[in-house]
Amino acid sequence: MRTRYQYHPPKYNRGPLHPIQSPPSSDPVARDFVPGPFNTPRLKQTFQSTVASDIMTLAYLHKEPGTVERETPERLRGWDESSPYHKNRAARAPRGNSVLRPLERDITFKNIPEIKEVTLAAYVPKAIKEEDHLLVARTMLMAITGTTPEITTSRSNVAQWGITKGKKAGVKATISGNAAYEFMDRCIHLVFPRIKEWKGIAGKLRSVEEERVTLLCPFC
Questions:
Q1: What is residue 79's three-state secondary structure?
Q2: For residue range 50-85, what is the model confidence (pLDDT) as tens digits?
Q3: Where residue 166 sits, what CATH number does that domain have?
C-alpha cells in the first residue's frame, strides 16, 4: 500500500513527455489536492434533480435525421465597393436592428444553464469625499459573502454629483461554486420573502452556459 511518505510528487510540471508525472488532483498525495465537497447544497441538488430536466424539456427542439441545417443570416453587412468611400469602412449593423444580438447555441444535456457565480456590488457615494466609508462597506460584504471584497472605481465623470473618473466609489465581492448556491438558497428562502416591495432579479442570460446574478446592496 502506497503512503504519502513513500512518494513525493514533483513540484513542477515538466511536460507530458517527462518520465516523472504529477498525480491527478483527485489523488490525496497530489500537491493540489483539495478534499471535498462533503455535501451538496440543497438548491443545487434541487436544480440537478428537477430544474435541469425541466429546462431541457422546455428548450428541446426535435430534429429529424437528415434535417438540413439552416444557414446563419449575415450578421454584419459589408459594402459593395461601389464608392471609393466604402474602402476601410466598418461593417454595417444587421438589417432592421441596430443591436447585434449574440448567437445562442441549442440547449443540450452538455450546456444546461446553471449558476456559476454571484456578484454583490455596493455603491458608496460618500466614499468619494471620505474613503473611510469603504471600510464599513467592505466589512459588511465580507460578513455576507465570506470573501474579501475588492474596491471598485467610478467609470465616468459626473460634475453635478461630484464624481470623478477613477476615484474609489464602491466595493464588489464574487462567490462561486457551492458557496454561490448556498448564498442563493438563503436569499430565496430567508431574505427575499421578507422584502415587501422587492421587484425580483433580472433573469437575463449572459450566455447559454453561464447565468450570472448581480445583486445591488446600497449602503448609502
A1: coil
A2: 878 887 787 777 778 888 877 776 778 888 888 888
A3: 3.30.1440.10
